[in-house]
Each structure stands twice: as structure tokens, then as C-alpha cells.
Amino acid sequence: MIYIFLFLILLIIDQYSKFIVDRTLSVGETIPIIENFFNLTYVQNRGVAFGLFQGKIDIVSILAVIAIGLILFYFCKNFKKISFLERIAYTMIFSGAVGNMIDRIFRAYVVDMLDFRGIWSFIFNFADVWINIGVVLIIVEHIFFNRKKRVK
């Protein structure tokens, strides 16, 4: 099934990138890729997005497990009702959530490395990218495609 394949590919990209960063960089080390815009910076995030809830890994992990379960339940229950785009979106969100949960379980922190200093000060990882793309796809689906269904 395409969704399982997509899930595995996204999870492998996320986990492999974190493995490489964890093995080759020291915490806080930065490698400029595009001067004054994009860097690889190794950060150990012990909270959630944007550094919120730092040091509360137990609470964050419990909430993440609940979120993963709810996403999987919704996806399986509504699989035939939701569009192809939504299926891709939920697969991406699920993959990102699982990728970060793997870090929390096996490292007790999430490895972040994507540092776009030219845009903002937050550092994130591929799992975060997958989650955000998934959310954007769901919003696009509901704004542009569900609207057309209601008009008919």
C-alpha cells in the first residue's frame, strides 16, 4: 500500500538524518550551508515545537502517544471517506509524530538540526517538516476542495 511505503520512506529520512547529526556534530555545533540563511545546527530538544515545555519529556511523551493513537484511529476509521490528498496528509503527520516519538523513547530528547536563521530562530527536523506539510495539505483540502463539493 502506498501509504505504508510513504510512511516508511519519511520515517527513514527523518531517523537517518537525526542519526547522522547525532553521530557527527556536537550539541550546539553549526555548519553553514547557505551563509546567513541556512545552517545545520545540532540541538537536543527536550520539549515540543518552538522549545515549549522543555524538560517535561514525560508529559510530552504521553500526549504524543495519545495524539499518535488518535491520528491512526481517525485515519483507519475514515480511510474510505477521506480524499487521496488527506490520506497523504495524515500519513505525513503520523510519520512525523512517530519519528519524534522514537527520539523521545530512545534518546529522551528530539534531535533538531534544520536552522533557517535567515527566516526565524527556531531549529527543527524532518519529522516537524512532515507534520507541517500534512497540516497545510489538510487545510488546502478543506478550503479549496471541500468548498467545491459543497457548492455542487
From TrEMBL:
Membrane topology value: Multi-pass membrane protein
Protein localization: Cell membrane
Listed GO CC annotations: plasma membrane
EC class: hydrolase
Segments passing through the bilayer: 59-76, 88-106, 118-140
Active-site residue numbers: 112, 128
This enzyme's EC code(s): 3.4.23.36
Entry coiled-coil feature ranges: none
Pfam families: Peptidase_A8 (PF01252)
The entry's keywords: Aspartyl protease, Cell membrane, Hydrolase, Membrane, Protease, Transmembrane, Transmembrane helix
Metal-binding listed as a keyword: no
GO BP: proteolysis
The keyword Transmembrane belongs to this UniProt entry's keyword annotation: yes
This protein's pathway: Protein modification; lipoprotein biosynthesis (signal peptide cleavage)
InterPro entries referenced in this protein's UniProt entry, alphabetically: Peptidase_A8
Main localization of the protein described in the UniProt heading: membrane
GO molecular function, one term: aspartic-type endopeptidase activity
Family indicated by similarity: Belongs to the peptidase A8 family.
Entries under HAMAP family matching the protein: LspA
Role: This protein specifically catalyzes the removal of signal peptides from prolipoproteins.
Name of the featured protein: Lipoprotein signal peptidase
Species annotation: Fusobacterium vincentii
